[in-house]
Design goal:
heterodimer, A: 132 residues, mainly beta, OB fold (Dihydrolipoamide Acetyltransferase, E2P), three-stranded antiparallel β-sheet, 2 helices, B: alpha/beta, 2 domains, 14 strands, 24% strand, binds zinc ion
Chain lengths: 132, 349
């Protein structure tokens, strides 16, 4: 009952591990994760830019019944975070009582375990927000 | 060629458990442990934290202070006895996350609590040889003691990272030594969940013999005396041992206090004396001399003499201070939560 495909996990390392985003050469819009076509101007040329790891909570929800991969973590906060460079990402907020999460709360992204494929499969790493 | 530390960083998880909370579960007398071992609480990793995540955060902090291009890092050594995979390196994950791949030499090291300083020893030597421009050494652990065992009161989590180079140093390496013997004081056999230790044999013939042996070698090699140092830090399996080793070696309490974190942190194994060194660098002044001696069961000590440079004042504020992480933002957990976070509860299929 493998849930994580190692090849797929590895393809996402640049964005998951290093927060690499794509900045459109034509209009400057930043896409994260990177896309093939710019959603703003349909441009197809990009430069790799790292996201700023600081930001604030825009909106959030508290998950009480999570997927089986996250059931040991409930209740946990899942948030849309606006980073310093204006990019919005969806991620968990770790190291916080979910009842204390508020809009505008300053956070920074920290490298964490996101998921593991049971006790024998691969471990997927990425970023979560933590109180700044 | 002068080599030394270009950047340093530490990571301490926010969660803590008090000793009394553990003692109450096992019917032990908390006061005996608090007095006997000089331990009050210890750090606990969250379920999404492990040796790799802590290593990445500590290393990013070291990079922030080093202010170097990560692709100039030619070697990444992660020392730990709690690597997340039994087979598959931690170092490649750390190197990939930092942007040091692909032109980088990687190795995971293991030597009980000495694996972190082992990486520092190698990183310094590799830079000195001219083989690499920069080398990263990390000591990190999320170690466990068997439930109810004396080790459960101390086994904690944390990481320290050091980037070595030959220019823009914050601390120059004056000397490094190793003092080794084969000493079976602590071990874990394959497939065993928890380690075993040899009780009182872990003291005089193990910890003290090797830490004091390495200290003596360092003082002989450099011609220095304890009074020539502003700070000294020893491996910290509990609160008591490092203070005692320091005093036996001729250091005063004032020289030992800055790096003495274990009473409120616990034993971070491969991270222990390295995290202590980060706390010292956070408050050291240019010209200060620091003695650092690790200890790993099995057994051996690595010893280092550092001299702090002027650059320390420029880089200090570029990353969180170690004492701030130890003292602030703590989240206390119950023994039940601790048991869940540490995987001590047997789950259904
Ligand atoms: Zn565009």
């Amino acid at each position: 009952m493998s849930t994580l495909n190692p090849a797929r996990v590895a393809r996402e390392f640049p964005s998951r591990y290093r927060l690499e985003a794509a900045r459109c050469d034509a209009c400057g819009a930043v896409s994260f994760p990177p896309r093939l076509v710019c959603p703003s101007c349909r441009g197809r040329k990009f430069k790799v830019v790292p996201l700023q790891p600081e930001g604030k909570v825009l909106t959030w929800t508290v998950i009480h019944v999570g997927p089986s991969s996250h059931k040991h973590e409930v209740p946990y906060a899942l948030a849309v975070v606006e980073l310093a460079d204006g990019v919005r990402i969806t991620c968990q907020i770790a190291d916080v009582d979910p009842a204390q999460v508020a809009a505008g709360m300053p956070v920074r992204l920290e490298f964490r375990r996101i998921q593991e494929d049971g006790e024998a499969g691969v471990i997927a790493y990425g970023h979560k927000a933590v109180p700044a | 060629m002068r080599v030394g530390i270009v950047g340093y960083g530490a990571y301490i998880p926010r969660r803590r458990i008090r000793l009394g909370e553990i003692a109450a579960v096992w019917g032990a007398d908390a006061a005996t442990y608090e007095r006997g071992l000089e331990l009050h609480e210890k750090s606990v990793p969250a379920s999404d934290e492990d040796t790799v995540t802590m290593s990445v955060t500590a290393s990013r902090r070291a990079l922030a202070r080093a202010k170097i291009d990560p692709s100039s890092i030619g070697a990444v050594y992660v020392g730990s006895e709690s690597h997340p995979y039994a087979v598959k390196p931690s170092g490649t994950i750390v190197a990939e996350a930092l942007g040091a791949t692909p032109a980088v030499h990687c190795a995971d090291l293991e030597f009980a609590c000495k694996a972190g300083s082992e990486g520092m020893f190698l990183a310094a030597a590799l830079v000195k040889s001219g083989e690499v421009q920069h080398a990263l050494a990390v000591g990190a652990d999320t170690s466990q003691g068997a439930p109810g065992d004396a080790l459960e009161y101390s086994a904690a989590a944390g990481a320290a990272a050091f980037i070595f180079g030959s220019s823009n140093l914050v601390a120059t390496l004056e000397a490094q030594v190793s003092f080794m013997t084969d000493t079976p004081d602590f071990w874990r056999r394959e497939y065993m969940r928890y380690p075993r230790h040899a009780g009182r044999f872990t003291g005089e013939p193990a910890y003290f013999k090797h830490t004091l042996g390495a200290t003596r070698m360092l003082l002989e090699k450099t011609g220095l005396q304890p009074k020539d140092f502003a700070f000294a830090v020893f491996h910290q399996p509990n609160g008591k041992f490092p203070m005692r080793a320091g005093k036996l070696a001729g250091f005063r309490r004032e020289q030992l206090e800055a790096g003495w974190l274990s009473p409120w942190l616990g034993n971070t194994y491969s991270g222990a004396s390295p995290i202590g060194l980060t706390a010292i660098l956070d408050q050291a002044r240019p010209g200060d001399r620091i003695l650092m001696v690790s200890y790993g069961s099995g057994a051996g000590s690595d010893g280092f003499v550092w001299t702090v440079t002027e650059r320390i004042d420029e880089v200090r504020a570029a990353a969180p201070a170690t004492r701030d992480q130890l003292d602030n933002g703590k989240l206390y957990v119950s023994y039940g939560t601790y048991a869940k976070l540490r995987g001590k509860i047997r789950m259904g299929e």
